[in-house]
Model the fold of this input.
Amino acid sequence: MTFLLRRFVFYIVTAWAAITLNFFIPRMLPGNPVQSLINRYQGQLSTDATQALYAMFGLDKETTVWQQYLDYWGNLFQGDFGLSFTFFPTPVGEVIAQSIPWTLILVGVSTLISFVLGTLAGVYIGWRRGRWTDSLLPIGSFFSAIPYFWLGLIAIAVFAVAWPVFPASGGYDGAFVPSWDADFVWSAVYHGLLPAITIIVSSIAGWMLGMRNMTVTVSSEDYVTVAHAKGLKERTVMFGYAARNAILPNISGFALSLGFIVGGTLVTEIVFSYPGIGYILYQGVSSKDYPLMQGVFLIITMSVLVANMFADLAYALLDPRTRQEG
Amino acid sequence: MTTTPTVDLPVETGEHGIVPKKGRGGRGAWMIFRNRKATVGLCILGFFVVLAAIGEYIAPYDPNKISKSLMEGPTAAHWLGTTNTGQDIMSQLIVGTRGVLVVGLLAAAVATAISVLIGVTAGFVGGIGDEFLSLLANVFLVIPALPLIIIIASQLPEAGGTTVALVIAFTGWAWGSRILRAQTLSLRRRDFVEAARANGESLWRIVCFEILPNLTAIIASGFIGTVIFAVLSQITLAFIGVTSVSTWNWGTILFWAQSNQALAQGAWWWFVPAGLCIAALGTALTLINFGIDEFVNPRLRTTGGTAKALRSKRIQARVGFTPVYRAPAEKRGEE
Done:
């Protein structure tokens, strides 16, 4: 249990660090962003919004930083992220709540598929070293070097413009209202296919390479030799002995690189104008909507933390050593 | 696959031509050139470095110059076509190379410096200090870097090249630091370090002359990895318009292509070359890293190039088969 407990404490600390970072970033950076914003909007901001802005950037001098920090926490616990400018006067929390299911499904499903497929392929390539499969490595590194968004652009150019089999943008057909009926779900799946394939293609190589290297390293361990010597079936040795041990670093790697992957997938959403959280972040960035950007950052970080916790649980299940302590 | 598990021992492999033939004996940095992947990577990287250095002199046009040939595909006058305002895309690519490389290298240099400082300190001091520094590194690893970079960069009054590089470095040091810490931990109790300690060498001397030289390969591969991360992040920032769109880099080209509906108009020449450049640079850096990895961990060497040679001698590369060549005798005594 100590393993999980330690990890839990770590996540609490990380969450605290992310939230605190989020609080201090607008205050530490130079310049007076509020004034430039007010100028940009040329009087379209209401007094309330201006006031909220000043409070957010810590420019209302009446309160101390400590007091602001406490208020900030208080607001967070009430789910209050402030008001969005882009979708004024919708609260940021509401904007995010509408977009998060899209991202969770798209990014979650495609990352899982890519992890599972990539890991299996990595085991295979590592096991059959010296075959033609080795040539997948340079190809894989080429694909992992391509930015997600560019692959998205190419996918759109080929499969939506030149040969229109998939829709170029959006998360569902504009004729539908989001609901759970079959037509809408089908439309959403259809719109999600191309972004999902893009994400899978660009992230699969990373898992493959990592797993391949681990399999190669593990496959010369004594216990693998012994398993062979016992005359066990090839498959049993491959999955039960080599892969089972090789996958442990890959799972902790999965947890740690989720942050990178999520970043890349958010940009994929931007390219496809997919109604998820990445697209919201983009809209926030293009209209300098600070409360929205900060809210999105917090939500993304928290989701990554939760995903990490699941990865840790999987690790604990696969590695008996973590359960023995305590 | 045959049923008899042939587990070859490294002893046998010495004669199969896996060994670099020239026995120059040196294991110095030039060894990297014996690795084909690394050589290819270094050549591509060298090409881009040259382009970055002399780009503005060899670019056929001023990248900002508007001309009358609007939205043209590749022609003899404009090899990679023109934008909707008649700017020459090849010139934009060539001139933009410098921005990409400078930011990538600067960010990686700063991030590597931070990661060496934090990773080696954490691994060497141990105890509470280690706990704290590792926690710091892990926190930065778990927090998604790109959104963090986006919110910092977009709140800065002006996000020029140097600023972006520093922001990327601030978020990208954690991975290298984690690996360096692990390696330092394993070095810390080795005999040669103990010997140095017993000799009464100062802490600084031990760290700089005993520990750091043994970390060179890891630091180098961490540096290369961070360059990849920095290049991708910077291009992504430029693409979504967070950084200045008036200075040229490959991301800026994609930004203008996207905002002028190049996709819908089928203007493939506008966004394909920039992406291929990114991919080529990224692949080059990854190949260099493979070379370094294989240099450090001989087990990872693919037998790809030598598979044919092996098969002609009826040897099957398979499980447990590690084509390690024997290190010179005097080196082997170390472990």
Notes: Chain A touches chain B through 78 residues (CB under 8 Å). Residues 176 and 184 of chain A are 6 Å apart (CA to CA).
